[in-house]
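Re: the request from the purification team.
They wanted to know what the chain is likely to look like in 3D before they choose a buffer screen. I agreed to run a prediction and write the result into the notebook, where they can find it.
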Amino acid sequence: MPWHLWIVGVLSLLWNMGGAFDFFMSETHNTAYLKNLTPAQLDYFNHFPLWAVVTWGIATWGSVLGSLALLARRRLAVGIFLMSIVAMVLTTLYNYVLSDGLKVMGRGAAPLVFSAIIWIAAFLLWFYARAMSRRGVLR
């Protein structure tokens, strides 16, 4: 097994657990975690349609599962990361096309830059898992 699989796997697990933590704290309406949000932002998060909550959950928890599968050297990681990306497409569609998510979350480049980083990380993990699968590292 290549040494970098452990590094990528552990770092991706930590990164993706951050997203899952955000999802959990947001969906459980943790007041201490959400205290810095404006009333408009809280209202926005509290009124996500069910399908957007489900796709957000699949995207975040799926990425955690993908990282675990990568660490377990399972080829299934490729499909799980891809499923997470598909769910991200649907969540992003809601956030930026079907709602005023960008307007509500604030003007400026920060929300878009952070979203871009999330997308880049997701695609890099999928490409990495595919490469490891094609090399026979994942079984």
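For the purification team: DSSP finds seven helices and no strands in the chain.
Please add any questions underneath this entry.
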